[in-house]
Amino acid sequence: MIQTLRLVTNTPEETQAVGHALGAHAQAGDIFLLTGPLGAGKTCLTQGIARGLGVEGYVRSPTFVLMTRHHGRLTLHHVDLYRIDGAEAAWDLGLDEQLSGGGVCVVEWADKAEELFPGSSLWIDLAYCGSEERRTLSFSGGLRHHREALEELSADHLPDPGKDA
Ligand SMILES: Nc1ncnc2c1ncn2[C@@H]1O[C@H](COP(=O)(O)OP(=O)(O)OP(=O)(O)O)[C@@H](O)[C@H]1O
Ligand SMILES: [Mg+2]
């Protein structure tokens, strides 16, 4: 389990690089739960996870279709609960299939259906942070291999002490 760990990114490419590391280390059954306001970078992070999984082509936000599936080293299920109201409605989408299907599941706006997700999921909260392109990514929960993926990155992205406390 990850004690809350925080990284700062200064560009969309850096956020994608964080996602790439998570995707490259991802194991079957992994669930990444993304939270944070509109435009914080949830889809951007997912694009990196997809690349890290070897998914080819562009991953866009499934806000209107709610779920998309991409094929890489593992199948990536990308779910967006923005338009969903509560856990029951999320469950009615067939979310159990995405969560237990043996692929990797990324859920944007996961806080809308928090109670559906297993404790082994990695929560990632994205927040605006000062300048226009700066974001804080806060990680909690998750498994050992998630922490290993993040530790490789953290030296480059540690928050500036005193600025983001
Ligand atoms: N450090 C950063 N990390 C991620 N995105 C950034 C960063 N700096 C600027 N951006 C920009 O912020 C936007 C993030 O959009 P994105 O679609 O990923 O957000 P989102 O959290 O998925 O929003 P939504 O809630 O609408 O789905 C992009 O236009 C991206 O270029
Ligand atoms: Mg999005």
Task: Give me a quick take on this structure.
The chain has about 160 residues and is an alpha/beta fold. It is about 30% helix and about 30% strand. The chain has helices at about 10-25, 40-50, 85-90, 95-100, 145-155; strands spanning about 1-10, 30-35, 65-70, 75-80, 105-110, 120-130, 130-140.
What report would you give on this structure?
This protein is α/β, with parallel strands linked by helices and 165 residues long. It has a single domain (2-157), classed as P-loop containing nucleotide triphosphate hydrolases (Rossmann fold, 3-Layer(aba) Sandwich), CATH 3.40.50. It has five helices and seven strands; from the N terminus they run βαβαββααβββα. Strands 1-7-6-2-5-4-3 form a seven-stranded mixed beta sheet, with helices on one face. A hairpin with a 1-residue loop joins β6 and β7. The two termini are 22 Å apart. Mean pLDDT is 89; it is low at 161-165. Residues 9, 11-12, 14-15, 36, 38-44, 61, 63, 82, 108, 133, 135 line the site of adenosine-5'-triphosphate. Magnesium ion binds next to α2.
